[in-house]
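Recall the central idea of this unit: under ordinary conditions, the amino acid sequence of a chain determines the structure it adopts. In this exercise we apply that idea directly, starting from the sequence alone.
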Amino acid sequence: MKLTFGIPNMCQAKAIFSPWEEKVTGAEQTKFAKWAEKLGYEMICVPEHHIIPSAHVELSGPHYFNAYVGMAHFAGATETIRVNSCIAILPTQNPIITAKALSTMDWLSSGRVTVTFAVGWLEEEFDLLGVDFNKRGAMSEEYTQAIIELWTKEKPEFEGKYVSFKDVAFEPKPVQKPHIPIWFGGDVDAVLKRTARYASGWWPFLTRPDQIAMPCASLDTGHSRRDFLRDPLGVVVILLDLGDFRRRNTAPVHPLLCQPAKLVDQFLFGRVALRHRFVEHDMAFADLAGRHAVKHIFQLATVVGLGLDEIDTAGDLVGPGQER
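Accordingly, the structure predicted from this sequence is:
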C-alpha cells in the first residue's frame, strides 16, 4: 500500500480547508515533508492557481502555490519521497517552459517527479493571464504532445497551431524513462480520452467514490492499460475529514462518503493508497488517525470493486513504512 501525504495549508479552498491550517508556515510545511518521508509516505502533491479573482475567494480561497516551484522545494528538502501536482494548469504556460521546469526537477531529484495536468476551470483566471479559455482543451492536447517530444527525442521537432519548434536542443532529459509520469485531472470525457492517450494516472475532481468504476472502465483499454501498468506508482487517494475523530475519538461513519473525495489512478490493477488531512498539525494524533483510517481500506475495496486478495494492507499502521 502506498500513501500520499496531505500537507496542511497548501490551499484554502473552503470545502477542504480548516482554519487552524492558516497558522502553518512554509518552514513547518518543510518539516511535514521530511516527517512524511521518514514515515515512508510515497508522495506529496501540490495544488495550483496563479491568481484568484475576488469574486471567487469565498469559494476557492486566496492561497495557492505555483505547483512546480512547490514541488521543486519539497523535492529539494527530501531524498526519497515523490512529488506531484494536484493539479498544474497546463494551458497557462508555454509548454517549453513547463517541459524544462519538470525535466530540471526530475534530473535534480534523481527521478522523483510525477505531474498531474489539468485544463483549468476558472475563466477569469485565464482572462487575467491573457490565455483563451475556450481553446484550453486544444492547447492542452498540443502542449502534452510537445512536452513529450521534448522529453523523449534527441532532436525534438513539433509543428502545431499553438506551439512549434525545430532545429533545437533540449537537455537535461528526465531521469525517468520513457519520461516523467503524466496524470490528468478532471471528470469530463475529453479528460478521460486524453488520459487514455498519454497518461499513466487519472485524478478525478467531482466524481463520487461510488461512481468511479464507470469512467475508470473507459480507461481499461489496450493503450491506457499498457501505460498504466508501466507506471510503478498506482494509487487510489481518499481525502478524509477526520474532524469528528478528533472531537469524539471516533472515525467518520463512512469516510468514503466524506466530500471532497479524490480517487487517483490504477485501482483497477490492485494498488491502493490513502490520503488523510490532519485537523491539527499534531504528530501523535496524525499517527493515530492514520492507523484508524487504514482500517477502512476494505470499505474502499468494496466501493471500487477490488477483491480483498488484491490489496496489500498492513492492518494497524504507525506510518506507511512501519508495518506490523
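The CA atoms of residues 34 and 78 lie 6 Å apart.
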